[in-house]
Write a structure and sequence with these properties.
alpha+beta, 7-stranded mixed sheet, about 25% strand, binds coenzyme A
Amino acid sequence: MTVNRGDKPESNEPSDDPSSSMWRSGAAPAFRKLTIADRFAFEEHLLRLDPNDRRLRFWGGVRDEAVRDYCARLDWTAAVIMGAFVDGGLRGVGELVRVRVVPQMAAEIALSVEGSWQNAGVGTELLRRVLILARNRYIDRVYMLCLAENKKMQKIAGKFDANLTYQEGEVEGRIWPAWPSVFSVMEEASQDGHAMLNAIFDPATVSPQSPRT
Ligand SMILES: CC(C)(COP(=O)(O)OP(=O)(O)OC[C@H]1O[C@@H](n2cnc3c(N)ncnc32)[C@H](O)[C@@H]1OP(=O)(O)O)[C@@H](O)C(=O)NCCC(=O)NCCS
């Protein structure tokens, strides 16, 4: 289904149930929003992506310095980042970065999951959660940019009824998040509460401090 501008879907649940394919690799990740205190864990996660995944994430080969620069420039007041932690290590992120406020709010989404944790449903769950964050912030439209060869990202976007446009080696995916509802706000609040309880009772889900902090 392609959603036309102005036609808000009832929700942004994926068209197939990701839970059926989730956590095929074993341990269930813990999800929580990152804060600026996680900035080095975030940077180290991006630096750990293998060269091909880094190229897919940044639409071209980038050196470590460019990744560090991207992290240093990230405006945390315009970004909400969902992290996936396995055994206390940050292994995946879903970035929602606001790029426009008027006339309607728009944001860009980028996903990354480290190699050993891929194909286990983590990317799909990150996108599902990031779309709830977008919905609850009245973001009217989200964009995803990926290289045309990135079939995996396109597969995930397709689960959320993204409208994919192909142009010159790149694919732009657009999703119109549903408007917030009591349920979407409750879901985010419940996820935050769950993350807080995890932090209290299972501190391994809290990102380790970087030696540089
Ligand atoms: C894209 C990325 C985030 C996906 O994360 P992930 O955790 O592997 O994703 P999931 O396991 O939730 O879903 C992958 C889906 O793609 C499918 N898939 C795997 N290889 C595929 C391929 N070559 N072609 C099409 N689909 C493929 C999987 O079967 C799965 O679908 P299913 O759940 O219906 O079985 C991860 O591969 C990544 O970090 N890539 C590098 C960075 C990147 O490309 N980011 C996107 C641009 S911002």
